[in-house]
Amino acid sequence: MSKPTLLILAAGMASRYGSMKQIDPFGPNGETIIDYSIYDAIRAGFGKVSFIIREEFAEKFKEIFEPKLAGKIETDYVYQSYDLTPFGIDRQIERSKPWGTAHAVLSARNQIHEPFCVINADDFYGYEAFEKMAKFLTDEVADDKFSLMGYQIDKTLSDYGSVSRGVCKVDDQGNMTEINERLKVYFKEVDGEKRIFFEEDGVETELPRSSRVSMNFWGFTPAIFGVSEELFKAFVPANEDNPKSEFLIPKVADELIQQGKATFKVLPTSQKWFGVTYPEDKPIVQENIARLVKDGIYPEKLF
Question: Which residues form the signal peptide (predicted)?
Fold first, then answer.
């Protein structure tokens, strides 16, 4: 059986952070967050890494990643573009941002033919997540049985502002029954205690610390491409007048669950997630990585 593939979403423009954070250095020897994800994926048994990028960044990415990964893992590049004709949609729609994460995954439909997982380029997930996902993709995945890593919400928030989180409802079998995208989730001090809230339409609602959230770490087979393409073909005409609308993986997952076409197993992890949403997060990520290196979790120099 072929080894699973790691598909990295790296085409975003990093509008909140203010630089192309996908290739920003964070480790003691200039390692990027992607480097740590790839290092963990290789240890966990993945056989290929595919980068979803904008074509104009291709040379820069190859210059950075090809020398260090040669002989360690196969590499591939997928280009996300605004061109809708490959999906049989004969229209041009002006947009300032790509069509979203599920469209990015769809862009890889002709290049991935084995079970695969999807991650964000700018999120530090931890080795346990890759190990659990590799096991699922090797032993359990099926064309109607997908998965996602479920992080504890209090281990995923920023101290510097609100964040978006996909909050999962999970049944007794460990499968997600629905995912609710909360666009403004934050810590708030209440009676000397740090608690978690989300705000929607001006209404503040508390979330339990044990809530499981998706950090966009999903496990699929190539069967996801066909069902996603049908949904995307319906999404575009319904949203062509809304340039900020995005075709997102949680929307596809929710649709498949509601239609009874697939299950999504939530793989719980105790790892602390960290990432860079705001510029103030960068030194914290650097400190966390330095601590992991000091504790021997990662070598001083990855590659």
Answer: none
Q: How far apart are CA 17 and CA 160, in angstroms?
A: 12
Q: What's the CA gap between 210 and 151, in Å, rounded?
A: 9
pLDDT digits (tens, 9 = 90+) for 223-259: 999 999 999 999 888 888 887 888 999 999 999 999 9
CA dihedral 67, 68, 73, 79 (to 10 degrees): -60
Whole-prediction pTM? 0.91
Q: In degrees to the nearest 10, what's the CA dihedral of 167, 171, 172, 174?
A: -60
CA 118 to CA 219: how far, in whole Å?
A: 7
